[in-house]
Amino acid sequence: MAVLLETTVGDLVIDLYTEERPRACLNFLKLCKVKYYNYCLIYNVQRDFIIQTGDPMGNGRGGESIFCQLYGDQARFFEAEKVPRIKHKKKGTVSMVNNGNDQHGSQFLITTGENLDYLDGVHTVFGEVTEGLDVLKTINETFVDKDFIPYQDIRINHTVILDDPFEDPPGLSVPDRSPEPTKEQLDSGRIGADEEIDDLKGRTAEEIEEIEAEKEARTRAILLEMVGDLPDADVKPPENVLFVCKLNPVTTDEDLEIIFSRFGPIKSCEVIRDWKTGESLCYAFIEFEKEEDCEKAYFKMDNVLIDDRRIHVDFSQSVAKIKWKGKGGRYTKDDFKEYEKERDKPSKLALKEKVKPKQDSKYDLVLDEDIEESETSQSHLAKKQKKKKHHHSEDEEDDKRTKKSKDSDRKHEGERYREKMKSEKKDRHRSRSRSQERDYAYSKHKDKYKEDVRVRDWDKKADRSRSPKKSKDKERSKYR
Hints:
Elements: E1 2-7, E2 10-16, H1 22-33, E3 40-41, E4 44-46, E5 50-53, H2 66-71, E6 78-79, E7 93-98, E8 103-111, E9 124-131, H3 133-140, E10 155-163, H4 183-186, H5 205-227, E11 241-245, H6 253-260, E12 266-273, E13 280-288, H7 291-301, E14 305-306, E15 309-310, E16 312-315, H8 333-343, H9 368-465, H10 468-479
Antiparallel strand pairs: 1-2, 1-10, 2-9, 3-10, 4-5, 5-8, 6-8, 7-8, 7-9, 11-13, 11-16, 12-13, 14-15
């Protein structure tokens, strides 16, 4: 119940779900038995998704089931088996491709990703890859074009049935040996599966060194672009600038400009100096207007003696004068191209000596025609001012009306507010008078109570102060 697929990049072993998908497994096994899949292209490789094959035409539009060979064209496709439901959960799941009508032919796919739920219920799972997952990984990582077709052919060379539980149906013709591939079958218009891709084959050692040096320079330029030290990996230094080194510290910009100006007009000549001390760093950049003049100076001025120093001249490799923001900058490749276009345009700035002095307009000559034109312009201005005044007066009337309405509204609101305040004051006065009356009655009652208490206390004290002898004499005097 397993099949071995021998491909151009390695072998894959597929275990089949013969109990869950008997019809799909029967179709796949018998197609492998009649060598139907031999030399079939893997024509669809979508990284971390699927790889698709099983079409002898190699374009995804052909293929037929084993039942077509047995029963004719009316049995080219067979119905999909949806029960029991098996999901595309893991890598290496093998499914029959749906033709759009819930039918299958000979095409099948192998998943290279996990949990591909959107394939469930559409393509029928009938097996899984148990051996050769490293081969599946190499196929998954192959280079493809925009249509997901590999640049180099990957084919199924041979199929071997390891275990077949199904008997051969009557009328099935099994070949004795694998058939030879045709030219049409092998001619895909791409790099052949057996072709070796070697760019250095047939080249000399010097050419190989040059190619490797170019590759290293390219990788360095890309790294500098990624870091932010270059605006673009393809940026090139200007070809009209010379780099001059080994200068005498005494040599100045004017000296170099005079010496090199015999080859042609010079745009700029700058000796690089220390930003703190201002001393010369013994190298300079000279920019010519024409590239031809720059080449002449390069060939004739190398190793020339200037100020008792033999200078060295070379073409500049610096891109420091390109205006861009560097690390974290916002300039792109398009901005750099626009800068290259605008660099050759003449500058709008000029020296003070070349600029014409401005004349005061008060002292210019005035002609009759100019006077007439000024009068007509003044009349037009007067008309415009009248129109503006008229519009302004209308606007002022509208503003006055709105102000009056607003003032009346404000007066009404003020009167209402005053009435409210008066009513609140009256209520407060009433509440205060009531509270005062209550307090007065309470104080009177309290005073009476205090006086009664005082009288009682005084009587008690008087009774206590009387002696017992005097009371007895009084009682006796009553009976006398």
